[in-house]
């Protein structure tokens, strides 16, 4: 199956590190013109992005997805330079741990500002350009937490549920321009956001025991799905939440099948 992204103009938000950095590099490796938006880029390239980095350049733009002016300026500049925008990946997101009793109002708001407000502002700005072209793809990072939350994840889980609903509304509102909008739910990808890889073995085992595949997800697992979603092969797929969690949402105690 041909997943041809050559000459597509792609924006990936939150792409200075973690999953976003790999998504950006993988799209670039597929021949897309990729611009990475992030609040801050590290002085040395992110280790997650290194493997794919050298051969396939990714342009870096400082953009705060919670700031309407920053978003509008950065998006319009990409569209001006490349003659439009074909694909937007709203990957930027933050975690905000704390029970409802512990969370400060500011923490709750910040979490929603980035995770939901960022998707809203970026989609609003990019959709204008996509409408003009009569095509486009918007792909939004949700999480399995949108479906099955954890204790202490009120702000994060509620914000990711909001991303799913926002994606569905956008899918309908942008359908008349042949713009598809989908959300995806990764499972557990060890990154700086969660520190899974640095946890004691017992804690790692407890988490892995909740996955049918019983192994950590890699950023490439996520990127593989997104490359498909951005391709012409996914042209009839819209308004969906794609589960890429390695079976996190499949059964109650998958560890039994692993003899545990
Ligand atoms: P990360 O924390 O490693 O990277 C997030 C990136 O977003 C950082 O580069 C950060 O600077 C950027 N960012 C944060 N606020 C921003 C803002 N206001 N404007 C622009 N950029 C901003 O996170 P990770 O783990 O790579 O996650 C990426 C996405 O995937 C997030 O939306 C996360 O919620 C989602 N996800 C991650 C999972 C995991 O296991 N790592 C599981 C499920 C969902």
Ligands and ions found: 1,4-dihydronicotinamide adenine dinucleotide
* Count of domains: 1
Count of β-strands? 7
- Mean pLDDT score, rounded? 95
What is the first-to-last residue Cα distance?
Answer: 38 Å
Give the number of helices.
7
User: Rg to the nearest angstrom?
Assistant: 18 Å
Taking the sheet with the most strands, its summary is: 7 strands, parallel
Which structural class should the secondary elements be placed in?
alpha/beta
For the biggest β-sheet, the strand order reads: 3-2-1-4-5-6-7
Superfamily (CATH H level) name: NAD(P)-binding Rossmann-like Domain
Spans of at least 5 consecutive residues with low confidence? none
Beta-strand content estimate: 5-15%
Assign the CATH class: Alpha Beta
CATH topology: Rossmann fold
Report the CATH architecture: 3-Layer(aba) Sandwich
Structural shape: globular
- Percent helix, as a range, is 40-55%
- How would you spell out the order of helices and strands? EHEHEHEHEHEHHE
């Amino acid at each position: 199956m041909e997943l041809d992204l050559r000459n597509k103009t792609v924006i990936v938000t939150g792409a200075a590190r973690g999953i976003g950095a790999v998504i950006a590099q993988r799209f670039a490796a597929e021949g897309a013109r990729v611009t990475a938006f992030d609040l801050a880029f590290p002085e040395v390239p992110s280790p997650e992005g290194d493997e794919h980095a050298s051969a396939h350049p990714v342009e870096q733009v400082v953009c705060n997805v919670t700031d309407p002016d920053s978003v509008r300026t950065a998006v319009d500049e990409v569209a001006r330079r490349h003659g439009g925008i074909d694909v937007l990946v709203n990957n930027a997101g933050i975690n905000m741990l704390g029970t409802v009793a512990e969370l400060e109002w500011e923490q709750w708001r910040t979490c929603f500002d980035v995770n939901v407000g960022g998707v809203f502002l970026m989609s609003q700005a990019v959709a204008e350009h996509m409408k003009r072209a009569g095509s486009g793809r918007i792909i939004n990072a949700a999480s399995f937490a949108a479906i099955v939350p954890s204790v202490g994840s009120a702000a994060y889980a509620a914000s990711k549920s909001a991303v799913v609903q926002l994606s569905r509304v956008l899918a309908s509102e942008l359908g008349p321009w042949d713009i598809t909008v989908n959300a995806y739910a990764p499972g557990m990808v060890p990154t700086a956001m969660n520190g899974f890889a640095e946890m004691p073995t017992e804690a790692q085992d407890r988490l892995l025991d909740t996955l049918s595949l019983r192994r950590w997800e890699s950023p490439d697992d996520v990127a593989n799905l997104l490359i498909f979603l951005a391709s012409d092969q996914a042209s009839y797929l819209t308004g969906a939440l794609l589960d890429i969690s390695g079976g996190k949402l499949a059964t109650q105690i998958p560890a039994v099948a692993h003899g545990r």
